[in-house]
Amino acid sequence: MHDRKPYLELKQISKRYGGVAALTGVDFSVYPGEIQAVLGENGAGKSTLIKIASGVTDPTEGEVLVEGKPVRFRSPTEAMRAGVVCVFQELSLLPEMTVADNLSIIDPPKWLGLIDAKGQRERARALLKRVGCEDVHPLELVRDLPLSRRQMVEIAKALGRNPRILILDEATSALTADDVERVYGIIRDLKASGVGILYVSHRMREIEALADTATVFRNGRKIETFTKGARSVDAIIEMMIGREVTHQYPEKPDPSTDKPVALAAANLAWGREIQDISFNLRKGEIVGLGGLDGQGQRELLLALFGVLRGVSGTVAVDGKPLLLDGPRRAMHAPLPMALIPEDRKTEGLMLPMSVRDNMTLAALPHLAGRFGVDRDKENAAVQSMVDRLRVKTPDMLAPVSALSGGNQQKVVLAKWLMTEPGIILLNDPTRGIDVGTKQEIYRLMRELANQGAAILFYSTDYAELIGCCDRVLVIYGGRIRRELAGETLNERSLLQSALNVDATEQAA
Amino acid sequence: MTTTGTRRSALSNWRFWFAHNSGVLTAAALFVAMFTLYISNHSAGLTPAVATTAANKAVLLALVAMAQTLPVLTRGLDLSVGMVFVMANCIASVIVVGTVGEGLLGILAVLAIGALAGFINGAIVVWGRLQPIITTLATGAVYYGISLFVRPGPGGDVQSDIADFLTGQLFDTVPAALVVLLFVVLVVWIPYRRSVLGRAAYAVGSNEQAAYMSGVPVQRAKLLAYTLAGLLASVAGLMLTFNTYSGEASAPIAGSYTLNSIAAVVIGGTSLFGGWGSAIGSIFGAFVLRTIEDLLFVFDLPPLWQPLFQGVVLLIAVSLGALRILRVRNRLELFS
């Protein structure tokens, strides 16, 4: 099928982070003038692949070849020099600098050895015109641009580097429909001029519209590369799911709707990220938040906990309206709320402080004696938590930084359980921790629910959502796309609605 | 049609120029207002002698503040600028002596030592991966130790022809110290600002990760920023020697210049979070701080009030910079 040689080739690439394998024995190539889509679930290894191809990380094993010659990219700069340019999902623009500065950041036009500001401005104007952003002034600061324009500037920046291989990682996620069309046009032009394009997207429609070939990844392995049209959407989804190691999940109680509502959200909205979200969360219920990563789930949890400013809509806890003006208010709601944050290192723990101090930080008012904190009461409470969650720590005075990831996460959980919350918001609590600890967390969640807590659980792991939750709300583009429960709560329908290609929409 | 288009774009270029330089312009306007107030209440008015006295004092802090600006732009800090300043002063009082030729050689040696001190700071920050604050706190102590070693008690001398020339007046009107400052701006700051490495410093301060991802030479940018900071601090040290004709390893001078340099940087509109600002702003920031002292003098207020007024000016400058908090949507951003 390919009469030419690949421009970029990865041979038997593996990448391990600590003990966790992100990629295993992957062979992968991109040809000039081809648009190749890369597909896979969250954590399938797509981002690791891109990071290796663009010089952000080194592979643990294997070889990277450019035009048949082995290379070793030690930095993104070296990859760019070799013609491999990446448009990153997390924007690589410099917010405090002008658009013109950003577009020519490494090799600006020069005059007598110094940056030629005028030449740079003209270059910026030409590049902006190429991506149809004539409305952006070259001297505007990037931080003043809306997200959709920034993404276009990011694309213009990549074009300015004359790529031979252009990698687009979810590059259209924030774009308007017009811009998406324009980006399609640019991609087709590049293809015509012989540039190879690696296109990572979760939107099946985009892939159908653009790609020549597609490669599916799952659990860090390449499953198959096929030409467009060779596989149906259903077959592709099947490939993405595969057969997974099943976890042992605690038994779910019989579904019943007569439990009292713990939290009622109505018409919540915040910027682009949350749009008109309404739902009820009942006592004793575990409700999952599903969907692709970054569709507004994290923001929804932060909004409920009062961290976001300017959220519209109403939230009622135990029937009483809750003012969304900060974590303290949420913690003292009629049913106290707790948020287990996503990044335990920055938002959940004080790493140098002891296990005891971390655990009791949020619950100190409960432990107050006549003169400050009652040490005996505190030690007893901490000891009972350490036993209950089986936290493996040499001593309750050991610094949290000395614990393993799973045990650190248990400390975060313990910290919030100490406050005896009635509503627990969990933000991907099992990311990056071992299977054993995961199962203990599942068991604990069910135990808490059985004791009457209402749990809202966001996870990027679909199997986990299916195994743990009574219901799952699938979020897409900031809206509740679908609610899955009982029979319909399975991997296929979850992935279909997450990708926005489910039956309901196809019928419409 | 084309002309209107060009004119409109030229106009909007100006609009952006004002927006980018609003901090510098504010500091400059503040200085002009304060200096006018000072001169109009001065018994002699604006004579070359009055201007020269003011310039000789102000240029010292202006140079140290310029030095401080460079690491700050990379989101660092240099607590050793005051000590490098004093070290240069002490060394200059030993080696910038003899004939004019020997004096000039001595000057070059002092500049090289200053740049080396800055390079050591940068090397520790870049390769040792230590935090700039603690690194420069430690090296600052070392540099002060060297100053004491070179000049245990106040004293020494300096080549007086060079000293008189650089602290006097050009054509009997323009303070020579101001010309030195202008020379430093034209030869060091402007080329730096418009070089790839200088802009890399802004990129690093703006978002180090994004800068790395974009292929910006992060390490070289930081090294150069600290090295130039050492160089500029030693220029200030030389000027101090030319003013006093002697060297003194004074801990209070070193400390107060370090702290005042940070204040001048902030008043000049440079963000302590890096990536935003200009050494020109720091010059005006330094001038503002110095003029406070002069104002207290002409209004016969006790000099003891000086720290209080400096503090108030600094607070106002910082508050202007904090206005961004009003726009924050995610409360977590307040802490980042």
TrEMBL record, chain A:
Pfam families assigned to the protein according to its UniProt record, in alphabetical order: ABC_tran (PF00005)
Residue ranges annotated for the ABC transporter domain, each copy included: 8-244, 258-502
GO molecular function, one term: ATP hydrolysis activity
Keywords carried by this UniProt record: ATP-binding, Nucleotide-binding, Repeat, Sugar transport, Transport
Bilayer-crossing regions: none
Domain of life of the native organism: Bacteria
SMART domains: AAA
Family: Belongs to the ABC transporter superfamily.
Protein name listed in UniProt: Monosaccharide ABC transporter ATP-binding protein, CUT2 family (TC 3.A.1.2.-)
Organism: Kaistia soli DSM 19436
Automatic annotation (TrEMBL), chain B:
One example GO MF annotation: transmembrane transporter activity
Self-association state and partner proteins as the record states: The complex is composed of two ATP-binding proteins (LsrA), two transmembrane proteins (LsrC and LsrD) and a solute-binding protein (LsrB).
Main localization, broad class: membrane
Keyword annotations: Cell inner membrane, Cell membrane, Membrane, Transmembrane, Transmembrane helix, Transport
Topology versus the membrane: Multi-pass membrane protein
Highest taxon, organism lineage: Bacteria
PANTHER family linked: ABC TRANSPORTER PERMEASE PROTEIN YPHD-RELATED-RELATED (PTHR32196), AUTOINDUCER 2 IMPORT SYSTEM PERMEASE PROTEIN LSRC (PTHR32196:SF29)
Protein name (record): Autoinducer 2 import system permease protein LsrC
InterPro entries membership: ABC_transp_permease
Keyword Manganese attached: no
Transmembrane region(s): 16-39, 46-67, 79-97, 104-127, 133-150, 170-192, 223-242, 262-288, 308-326
Pfam families: BPD_transp_2
Species name: Kaistia soli DSM 19436
Localisation: Cell membrane
Gene Ontology cellular component terms for the protein in this record: plasma membrane
Role description: Part of the ABC transporter complex LsrABCD involved in autoinducer 2 (AI-2) import. Probably responsible for the translocation of the substrate across the membrane.
The keyword Transport is assigned to this record: yes
